[in-house]
Amino acid sequence: MAIREDATAGTKAAGSADAAVDAAAGGRRREDFKDIAVRTLGTAGAAIAQLTSGLGTALPALLVLLWLAVTAVTSVVGVGLLMAPAPLRALHALAGRERDRLARWGPEVVAPQPPPTRLRPALVDPTTRRELRWLVRHAVLGFTLGLLGVILPIFAVRDSAFPLYWTFLPKGATATSLAVGSAHSWPDALAVALLGVGWIAIILGLAPGMARTQARPGRELLAAGPETDLSLRIAELTATRAAALDAHATELRRIERSLHDGAQNRLVSVTVLVGAARRMVARDPAGADELLERAQSAAEQALAELRTVARGILPPVLADRGLAGALSGLAANSAVPCRIDVDVPERCAASVEATAYFVLAEALTNIAKHSGAGRATVTARASGGRLLLRVEDDGRGGAEEDGGTGLTGIRRRVAAHDGRLSLTSPPGGPTVLTVDLPCGS
Length: 441
Ligand SMILES: Nc1ncnc2c1ncn2[C@@H]1O[C@H](COP(=O)(O)OP(=O)(O)O)[C@@H](O)[C@H]1O
Ligand SMILES: [Mg+2]
Hints:
The chain is an alpha+beta fold. It has 3 domains: about 50-220, no CATH class; about 250-315; about 320-440, Histidine kinase-like ATPase, C-terminal domain (Heat Shock Protein 90, 2-Layer Sandwich), CATH 3.30.565.10. The chain contains 12 helices and 5 strands. The protein has helices spanning about 1-75, 80-85, 85-105, 120-125, 125-160, 160-165, 185-220, 230-280, 285-315, 315-330, 350-370, 405-415; strands at about 340-345, 375-385, 385-395, 420-425, 430-440. A 5-stranded mixed sheet has the order 1-2-3-5-4, covered by helices on one side. Helix 1 (about 1-75) packs across helix 7 and helix 5 (about 125-160) runs antiparallel to helix 7 (about 185-220). It is extended and about 100 Å long. The termini are far apart. The structure holds adenosine-5'-diphosphate and magnesium ion (MG). Magnesium ion (MG) binds next to helix 11.
């Protein structure tokens, strides 16, 4: 009996274990389903955003195509030949913008060597020819797909929400996005909503493919062709990688030094003073108290030094006030009167923002220390995935990177982010420092 009971208990236990496994599987399935739904929605949303962003280059592509056509036609009578460089320059600039856009949505499109803008070499230049082929495809296909990327979501919202508002529409108003028929009854309205669901299904199913199709001509034709020599770009990337490692090592050494020379030393004296005070406390309480007071002030100094070190790693003001606030704060505290114009709607990677902050801090310190300038002007812009910073002063000029460690340090920091720093400072001034950083790295 007992055995049987045990047996039934065993099967029961097995049954409940099965049930638990089933429930777990069900839960997992639900989780999986949720995951897939979230992923599909995310992919479709990103694809729609990418398609719409494609309009930003497809619309200008149409105009440039038109411009090139007019130039080609007028070239027959000779006038167009003189105008040719301008639309060619526009074509190259637009191709560059498309490369930047594609890089934002996927891997970097490595640009070939800058193509010529003079007509005769341009006619035989393979890069220009590939760019022209891209222009035609992007102006037609890219533009159409971009428009669909805007229209499809509008259709989807309009039709799927139709039952909510159709009774307020005037009688006979066109009902569906496709302009076929108008709704007169609830079944009609629900049919329109069904159409809306159809649009949503189309977006979920087709938008990622459409975005890939829109990007394909750019990815194939704007990248450096097999005939281009990429060794230059590779050498550049190797150098920036080495610079990044170098900058990292220097940074670590600097932090290690400041911790060692500052906070660590102070804390050693705290332990020594506290130890001495403990030994003295029974004999001479007043003397012990004095020692403890000294220990306390040493601990406070250690704290202050730790704060400075932390601030040197990632200025907290960046997190508190954002890049615009941090840069404006630096300018406001500058010893030389400084006008600042910041327009940084895009957020950049924290290390990039920190680099911009340190560059401005060093530039303003240099202006105060060396330039003898009456005023300084700072401009900061973030757009198209790049952060640009320009600092100008009307001082005596003659800044040299070899003259100290500050400018070399910030050049290394900028190079580590694959950015560019340029300094022009003729004797007599003015001194202009510009820094161009990719936002994302
Ligand atoms: N804005 C400026 N105007 C004039 N001279 C400058 C300016 N910035 C830097 N310099 C000169 O370039 C040298 C190098 O600058 P930097 O690398 O920052 O070194 P330092 O540690 O001396 O500040 C300075 O010693 C100074 O002579
Ligand atoms: Mg300096």
